[in-house]
Amino acid sequence: MSDSRRAFLRRFGIAGAAVAGALEAWPRLAQAQPAAPAAGTELTAKPFKEALGQTVGISLKTHQEHYKLYQGYINKANEIRRRLREADLTKANQTFSDYRGLKVELSFALNGVKNHEVYFDSLGAPGVAPGGRVADLIQRDFGSIEAWRTDLKASGMAARGWVWLAYDWQDGRLHNFIGDTQNTFPIWDASPVLALDVYEHAYWLDFGSRRADYIDAFVKNIDWDTVNRRLWSLQRALRIRV
Amino acid sequence: MPLTPIQAKPLPPNIGTNGISRRTHEEHYKLYQGYITKYNEILGRLSSVDRSAANQTHSDLRELKAEWTFAVGGVKNHELYFDILTGSGGMPSGQLASIINRDFGSFDTWRADLKATGLAARGWVWLAWDHDYQYLFNNLGDAQNTFPIWNATPILALDTYEHAYYFDHQTNRGAYIDAFFNNLDWGKVGQRLERAMAR
Fold first, then answer.
1. Going by fewer Cβ within 10 Å, which terminus of chain B is more open, N or C?
2. pTM to 2 decimals?
C-alpha cells in the first residue's frame, strides 16, 4: 500500500480490510502510475493499443500515423526536460527567453502526451453501449447519455483541437471542455477520462473535411471499459464512496 | 443535476501585506469577483445555447465553452493565490519540504526557479503536483486558461499579471515576487500537497 493511500485511509478513518476488498473488485490500468520523471529520467511511450485496429470508420492507418505524433510529443518532452536542466535562469524574460520557450512548450509536449494517451484509451470497442460508473456520472451531470453525446458532438464542432470529458476535483463533476491546441485549454485540478481529438490529423485520411462524420464514428467506437478504468484509477475517493 | 451558480469566497482577512498592499489585494479581489460573475453568466447561457449551430470559426457555443475555461481558471487561480498568502514566508517543512528537495534539488533552487518562471510568464506560475508522473513542477501560464496541465493539482499560485503588483512595485516584477515569498503560508501549501497526494 502506498504512503498516499495510507494517508487517505487515515483521513477517512476507513478500515483497511474492507477497503482492500472493494479495491480488488476493480480492474487496474496497466500503468496507473508511471515512473516519476524526476531529474535524469525519461518519459516512455506506451505501446500502440492493438484494439485500435478494430475501430469502425477510423482506419488503422490513421491510428498508426497518429501514434507517430504521440511518439513525437514523448521525444520533445524529454528533449525539453533535458534542456531545462541546463537553461540560464538569470536570463528569464517574458517577451523572449530560452527559459520561457522551454516552459511554454513543455506544457504543449506534456499535454500532447497526456491527451493522446487518453484518446487512444478512449477508442477500440465498436458498438459497446456506455456503462459503469462513467455512464452513471454522465447521467447525473448531463441529464442523460444522449444530452452528453449531443454536447460532445457540438463541442467537437466548436473546438480547434480537443474535447475532453474531464472530472473536476473541485466541483466533483464531469464536464465537456474544449481546447484549441495541446495546451489550451486544460483545467487545473481536473482529470480527463475521455478525449476526442479534432485536429485534422485525427480524421482527414478517412473523412476528408467531414469532421461531423468522424465524431459520429468516434462515439460509436468508445472503449467504455477502459474509460471506466481510467476514472477508477483516478478516483480513490469515489471508489470508497461507491 | 444541473450546475448551480457559485459564490465568491471572501478575501482572507489575514492576507499578508508585507510588500503587497491591502489596496492591491482589494482591487485584485474585485477581478476575482468578476470571474465568479462571468462563470455564472456563461453557465446560464450554456444551458440554452443552440448546439446545432456549433462552429469552430465562430459560434456562440464555441465562445461560451472557450471562455468558460477562462472563467473557471480565473476562479481557481485566484482562490489558490489568495488562500496561500496568509503567512509570513520562511521555509516549507515535512513532506512538502522533502518533495521540493527531491524534485528541485533544494529549497533555494526551487525558489530561484519559481522567480525565473515568474519573470518568464505573462500571467501565472503554478507549483503543481502531477498525478500521472507523481512530481512537483513550476508551471508557467500566459492567461487564466493557458497552460494548465491535465491531471495535476496546483498547490501554490503566483499571479504575474500587472494588476498583482503595479500599485506597489510598478515595473519591478522581481521585487513583487520577492514580496510574494514573504507572505507565503507554507502550512496551507503543505496541506494542499498532502490532499493531492492522498487522492
1. N
2. 0.91
